[in-house]
Write the structure tokens for this entry.
Amino acid sequence: MGYFNENRKLLSAIRELKEDLERKNRQFDSIRTLFLSNVSHELRTPMNAIVGFANLLADDELGAEDKKEFVRHINENSELLLRLIDNMVDLTLLQSGKVKLEKDKLCLNSMVDELYIEYKNCEAVESKKLNLIPCRGNVNLSNVITDKNRLKSAMRNLIECAVRNTPEGYVKFGFGKDGGTMRFFVRYSGKRCEMNGETKSYNGGGEYSCHPESGGLPLTIARSIVEIMNGRFWTESESYNGSALYFSLPLKTNGTLIERFYRLGVSARKHIAM
């Protein structure tokens, strides 16, 4: 009798494992379909622009100024396309759990300035006439040790989300101290970006999904980076009819850099980039 009971338990356990495997396969298929749909949506936008303006350049009666403008649009959308491809590769690495974080010296104020220069003349900001507002933080908090490339990538993707979802008005970004962590923000006058169900990260046992028309791939990547760096990510609707994207990271301030910073002259401080 004991032998049959053991067999019955074993068969029951096998059935449960089989059902669990089938359920995970269905979940994976659903995630893969959604991911491919989002990626297709992201890639088509710059590709359509590149093809469209390239076809317009074939017009023999096109003036020199128009040609110059069309070439500018082609170049900007080509750069966007390259960033999207880099983002997809980055997301694959992030979700595989094989990312190795580096420890670099970074001046956060310099990072804010660099992001402002990068985005102030981009096509989306110019065409919508958005007011891009960089917010430099306290110099005593600006110099930190972190993975500077990952941190800058997270901010860059959040700024892209904000610009995408802001038809007019402003996009403001920066950082500040928040208790024992450093809080980074992107505030904007558009609609709130959010992920389906505010799900947890892949490494946290959850699944990624997002609305292409809202945050899309950039939001997914930014959140992935933040969680890989042991940070916290959240979105908010602001009381003044705006929205905001936030994340906080447990960053260490680099005291040596701060001391060196204050030994510099006033003119040198304005141009420091660590």
Q: What stands out?
A: Residues 2 and 86 are 59 Å apart (CA to CA). The chain has two domains: 2-96, 104-260+265-270. The beta strands are 104-107, 131-135, 143-146, 170-178, 181-188, 232-237, 243-249, 252-253. Confidence is low (pLDDT under 50) at residues 196-214, 264-274.
